[in-house]
Amino acid sequence: MTPFLQLSLALAILIAAAKAGGYLSYRLGQPSVLGELLVGILLGPTLVDILHIPYFTDPHLPEVIHQMAEVGVLLLMFLVGLELHISDLAKTGKVAALAGILGVILPLIMGFGTGKVFDLPNTAAIFLGLILAATSVSISAQTLMELNVLRSRVGISLLGAAVFDDILVVLGLSLFTALVVTESPGGLATVLGVLGRMALYLGLAAASGWVALPKASRRISKLPVSQGLIAFTIVTLLLYGWAAEELGGMAAITGAFLAGLLFARSPVKQRIESGITALAYGLFVPIFFINVGLTADLRELLGDTFWLFAILAVVAMLGKIIGAGAGAFLGGLSRQESLQVGIGMMSRGEVGLIVATVGVAQGLIDEVVFAVVVGVVIITTLLTPPLLRASFANSKSSADRSKPENKSAAEGELE
Description:
It is built from 17 helices and no strands. With 415 residues, it is an all-alpha fold. It has a single domain (3-403), classed as Na+/H+ antiporter like fold (Up-down Bundle), CATH 1.20.1530.20.
């Protein structure tokens, strides 16, 4: 069978399984994304290892699936940005900054301490802390959209905190590799250069897109080109994602999120949202969620590394819940809202894996620690949706029990 036919069959199975898992999860009262993630683990090397059964002989098939999943997360974060307004993020600047900063500092310290408990060298222990400092809110954002609270004070604070987290982790990674790995006397200058690249990218991307993208999208929508508006949108979000990582030194999802924020000002926003949503949730986003489990063999964590995995997983969750939650509370959110922000920051996702991959390539962590980190990414990603849903269910129940306070609670929602 040709590689294309193998890809066609694999995609058909994965998408159908993801949607079935999502529906079953929804029927059980959980976010649909949880079911898609669990199906990915069942179809992955933990149980079935579907992409490596004898029927699929193309060695490039897993990589093709992975690349399609990367497109899926870019589309997802674009849609998240499309649901928001830049003014919304500005209103939560203090909360986002404090949650993002403390959500990096505490996991960094706790990760370093855990590494030392297991006799890791100082450099490996510090890098382990850097991995735990990372966050990826794509899973949380999907859950918030399902709960219709993405534009709540909690949702917008969470997204803003993730941007701060991304910047701080990239800076920390740059500082560590410049001063420790290369032992370069110009390490500080390197870090300042990274910071300058970030500022330059964000400034140019925002300035060029603030007026140009809404105007261009309106004009292109009138051209006699088949789906020209959707094609223009896809090209733009891909370029923003590429530029964020290649030119700005940031995660590509940050660029896609920024593109969504800018397109949210377009007069043809509804047409853009309709077209991108069909493409994203019909093909790429299910592949992204299910791919999380396709590359992880959780059986490897039941051996000698179990205790390192178990302790690190607890540290990873508590570090974000306490750190980001405390920052949100200091920023003015209630205890319940702060807990929701902390839980939403818990998932490491692809950002944690990217940092861990750098560590393996530089020889800062070995393959055993890397396998443990992959397990931590999986478990935090799996637990985030149900915990986040439960935290919002509890807050809703509290509001229902105090009817006179419903009005003040609703004022936490951004109009």
